[in-house]
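If you are new to this repository, start here. Below is one unmodified record pulled from the training split, so you can see the exact layout before writing a loader.
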Amino acid sequence: MIQKFLKAVLFSSFVFAIHPPLHAQSIGDWEIFSSYSTINSVSFDNVDTYYVLTQGGLFVVEDDIIISRFTTIDGMHRLDAIESIFDELNNRLIIAYTDGVIDVFNVDNQSFEKIDDIARVNEFTSKMINHFELQHNELVVATDFGVVVFDRNQLYVTNSYLNIGEFPRGSTVYDVTFYDDSIFVATSQGIASALSSSNLVDANEWNTKKLSESNNLEVTEVEESNTFLLAISDDSLYSWNNGAWKVLDNQPLNNPSILESYEDEILIGNINKIQSISENNETTDIFVSDKENITTIRSINSDLLIGTRENGLIELTSSSQIFKPSGPYLNFFSETEYKDGILLASSTSQFPQSDPFNSIRGYYIYNNGWENYNRNTNTTLDEFSYAMAYTIDITDDDYFIGSWGDGIAIHSRLNNEIRVFDTTNSDFTGISANSSYIVISGIDTDSFNNTWVISFLSDLPLNVYSKESDEWTHFSSLPINNDELYFRLFVDSKNKLWIPLIDVSNNGKGLLIIDTGQNVFDESDDTYRKLTLSVDEGNLPDNNVIAIAEDKNGEIWIGTERGIARFIFPDFIVSTNNPSEYTAQWLINADTSATSRFLLRDINVSSIAVNSANQKWVGSVNQGIWLLNEDGSEIIARFTAENSPLISNNIEDITIDNERGVVYISTDLGLISLVETAKKPVNTLRDLKVYPNPFVYSKHDEVIIDDLSDQTTIKIVGADGSVFNSFQTKGGRHSWDGLDEYGKELSSGVYFVVAIADNGSEKGIGKIVIIR
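And here is the target side for that same chain:
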């Protein structure tokens, strides 16, 4: 029996973490910012190296040091692998996913190989893999439709058991174990067993038993030690005794959910407690905590590995150690904003469902390292029970973080002081059904440093914070229809408020534009205009306006549930009486052979961001990302999870670091970035950076010209002064295909890249060697 861990463990231990290496990224490079806090599975080899699967990828621990991390960029099928087993005979880790795909991680060459035999099964809807078991020369796989057997060495399917006794064909199998000379499977219908040597394809060879006669018939775990066998069904423990299953008379643990063998004992776990139980039903407390949510248990030698939901992997020895690579607290991202070298991000999507993570969905600040703020990490947020951070904004002095239900937090950038405003200390009002439940669904700041806030479904939906007076002012709705509710918010460079409207069922009701007049704190001088999809009321592509952005020309771009439009003269929208001046201009496709005259007409847009070259990044719901040219007539690039490292096609938000040309993409599976060509222009043209240098046609696709001014004419000049190509650029960085003006390769030699500012007052020069 384990004797050394009889009391609760105090977590004053060290956190062993590694930081991502500091390296210069090249154009086209992707980077994933994963959270490794939530542990899904732990496996280990024969030299005590731990392979830890999380919601954000895989990390490896060796000699109490995190030595490496892996994500989809390194070849993993997905970030959120759910199960694993280490095959010592072949020195490889076998990894499972919810869609039935198996990854094989080769330890020797650090590579991943995908096996999709289970994923390609067409007979059953769900192909989730629930458990692996290695038995002799077989890999036995428990799936949502039965048991699949692979050859352990060659990893091809040798058999499948889909008809298990009297249970329906294709019943879900949660767990598999071998005890004495029999195989036991825990299923959605009960538990079944058979002699391992029998013809397991034949349903008649299986003995089936429903351990619980209640509505919940599932058996979720079955585990063996050297001397006995336990199973979990209906939140109760059952023991295999003399050929029959019997419920344990004295249940040692409430709501057990995890079983793990340990020599002659079996470990039992629930959300915050682990016990060992012997064959004669004697129990010992191994681990007790009110801080941890246990997700998995593994035992190795005399040590215990505990996977948690929020705090990484705990190694329980004579003292405790926590392994968690540095990163965001959770792998959930929604809104993102970049300013002054800082990325701010929230972790709650709109209209969130019930979720075990909701109480700790806070916000992240990334600045050469991650700072995580939530109820577990900050006493102020915990005091106000502040969670479910949803909307964000960065000002010169503060971070503003609106929550879905708990009001708004103002986080000082100067001293990290956090203040929370809710109904206990302010005049904010909540939703009509619960006045204390404040949903902050929109935040943005005007040029006077006033921060505007939408309190959704509230009697006072429009609110403004004055930094100068440190006071809030609250406004009622303008006289629009009762079913039209303020939801999102965008403030343009002329301080007009753009407010998308919805109803209580989240149906789009159009777009409200408010000019707040000379006194922003006096609503009596406000004027407004409401736009809809009606031809004479704005001609929006759709009434559900989701994304709004202002480009470098002062145009306002909107993304809707059905396409994109722009307002070329937004200054006149509220004041004009001419419908043509407040009519949205849909994007006209430059490709006249295209099916639709309008570019991206039927795309459900989730976000729009403008880069330094005035190009538009467009995120969508389940369709990935587009990069459009300046006027939105052409697609420059398209990125999906199928053709790029993008981790999901479901895009939550996009924000851009124009200083470095890095695009941050928030998805429903986490955060990823891409280094793009465009970046902020330099103030004065000087020496140009031109690379790769030398440029070799057989090795390279493009030449990057860096450190340009905002609008520049580029000339490619030979040593004799001949001009081989000339083109216009916008932004601080541009790519050239290395060809002359006729589309032909240049001869080998030295060429000058000459950049002339559009005003003609500045010139920059670079040099490049071209090898044909």
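Two things worth knowing about this chain: The first strand starts at residue 15 and ends at 16. The helical segments are 379-383.
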